[in-house]
Amino acid sequence: MFRSERRKRNMNVGETAKTYLIYAISIILAIVYLVPFYWTVIKAFRNSIFANFPPNMDPLSQTSISYFITNLRTVWGFGDFPLWYFNSVFVSICVVAGSVFVGMLAGYAFARLRFPGRDYLFYAVLATLMIPFPVISIASYVFMLDLNWLSTYQGLILPQIASALDVFIMRQYFLTIPEEVELAAKIDGMRPWQIFFRVSAPMAKPAIAAATIFSFIGSWNNFLWPLMEVHSLNMFTLPLVLNFFKGANGTQIYWNQMMTVNILTMIPTIVIFVVFEKYFISGISMNYYR
C-alpha cells in the first residue's frame, strides 16, 4: 500500500516536472520568436537618427507615433511602392486561388478515383517536396524565357501554382470524409462534378483554410523566384523592395524605413491567419492524424 502511494507520488512529481519543463521551453521559444518582431516595431517607431545597430531595446526611448507616420509616408512615397505592394497582393491572391484549386482537384482524385498507378503517382508528387526550388530554378527561368514571360504576372504566378503540399493536405482531408455521403448524393442524381463542388469541397473547408495559409505565406515571402524572373521595376514585389533600403553599396541601412516595410508586409499575413484560423487547426490535425 505504501509502495503504491509512493509510486503515485513519484509519478505526480514526474508529471509536474515534465509540465514545467514544457512550459519553460515554450516560453523560451516564444521569446526567441517575439524578439525580432519586437525589434521591428520599435525600429519603425523611431527616427532615422535613433535607428542604429545594435538597437536600444527600451520601447520608451526615442519612440513616437509621429516617427512611425513619418516613416510610413516616406516608404509609401518611395518610388512606385503602391504598385509594388499591389504586385505582391495580386500575385499572392492568384497563386493561392490556383494552387488551392489544383490541390483540391488532385487531392480529390488521389483520394476517391481508382486508376492504375494512383498510389505510385501520389508518392511521386510527395517526392517533389524533397526537391529544393534552387535545383529547378534555372529550368523554370529558361522555360519562362522561351515563353517570353519574363517580368510578367503570368511568369510570376504560374510556376508557383502546383503545390505538392496542397495536394497532400487536400487528399488527406478528403480521405476523412465518409464515402457514404458522396454515395447518397450520387443516388440523388448528382453528377461527379456536382458531388465535388456541392458536397465534398464545402466539407473540406478546414483543409482549404490550411492550404490557403501555406500557399499565401509561401508566395508572399517568395524572394528567389521574383529576383530571377523580374527585370523591370514595375513588376517588383515587396521582398525585392526591401533591398532598396540598405543604401547604394550596402554600407548604410535605413533600419527605420526597412522595418516599416516589414510591418506593412506582415499585415496581410496576419489578416489571412485571423480569417482562416478557425478552420486552420482542425484542418492540420485531421490531416496528420489520418
Task: Please specify the SSE layout and strand pairing.
Layout: H1 2-44, H2 65-76, H3 81-112, H4 118-127, H5 133-146, H6 153-157, H7 164-176, H8 179-187, H9 192-203, H10 205-220, H11 224-229, H12 238-241, H13 255-289
Helix pairs in contact: 1-13, 2-13, 3-7, 3-10, 7-10, 7-13, 8-9, 10-13
Description:
- This protein has helices spanning about 1-45, 65-75, 80-110, 120-125, 135-145, 155, 165-175, 180-185, 190-205, 205-220, 225-230, 240, 255-290.
- With about 290 residues, the protein is mainly α.
- It has 2 domains: about 1-75; about 80-290, MetI-like (MetI-like fold).
- α3 packs across α7 (about 165-175).
Which class do the helix and strand fractions yield? mainly alpha
| Element-level helix/strand string | HHHHHHHHHHHHH
Helical amount: over 70%
Overall morphology? globular
Q: In a few lines, what is going on in this structure?
A:
Helix 7 packs parallel to helix 13 (255-289) and helix 10 (205-220) runs antiparallel to helix 13 (255-289).
Task: List descriptors.
single chain; 290 residues; 13 helices
